[in-house]
Amino acid sequence: MDSEKSKKRAIYCLTSKGAKLGYRIKQLIGADLFVHEKIKIEFNCLRFKSLSSLISKVFHAYREHIFITAMGIAVRSISPYLNTKESDPAVVVIDQNGRFCISVLSGHLGGANELCKRIANFIKAIPVITTATDTEGISSVELLAKKKGMDIENLSALKEVSLAMIEKEPIQLFDPDNIFPLDYPDVIKVSDETEWEKDTAGVWVSWKKTEVLNNKLIVVPKSLVLGIGCNRGTKKEEIRDAVHSVFSSFNLNIKAISLISTIDKKRDEKGILEFANEINVAVKFFSSEELNCINVPNPSKITQKHVRTKSVCEASAIAAAKMGEIIVPKQKFKNVTIAVALKKAC
Q1: pLDDT over 70 at 5, yes or no
Q2: Which of 58, 211, 230, 316 is most buried, most CB within 10 Å of its CB?
């Protein structure tokens, strides 16, 4: 593949006219261009003999797929490999004359609608988008969550919320920190669990755990920083168990973790790095001098003696949270200490 940028998307062409259009799109937005081996062209590309065989190998290797083919060909090619809304890549289909650009799969979560509009704008095509919220001019809840860098806990509830919005029914919104600007005219603000009406669809925005309901879409902001201290050689499993124990005890959502923080002496600590990879977050490291400047609830003389700072988990969590608030003070386990800080609002 040509570059890091081109690894994001692939273009598939079956005709010479389609190949020329595909090459133009590649030049505009970057992509790996696949052209059938029988088509004569004068530019560099990747060749294939069978589209269905190619798709079986690369469908989940790319985040975006652009078919310059008939719609039926594209649908038949991808259908055996579809999984879920969360995991399926974006798929867009364009006719070989570049008249219509159609969002086919993963319009919101996968970004196919945005990709469709972008390509249509470049090649002066008509964008075709059929998701109901878009056709009704209604804000997409999942797209807003994606743009805000938030996770959705229970995507199955999305259809209930979207249907209520399409039918212009009122929806509930729990958003105590005002971080989810849902553009919808009939919103019922809810302040706590006791006010939640179980017969009315709605959106619950919080870094805390909450009751899961079929019509209660739980949106989780990445608001928490997880500070970790551990003995050398502590296994990933022990760190994971400690984190889950803390989050369960304090009613926090694991999906709300935006970052793991620790001292720079742990840059090669396999257990921390493996756990961070497991939950797909980065690790930020701080020097003992940086950590020693931060006031913490539970300073430790033992920590001061061994790593020249009075705190690792609490101090690093506060530092990584931009001097945010400690909501879980240091929790001690056999080989691990855990603290959680709430990121300071910008």
Answers
A1: no
A2: 316
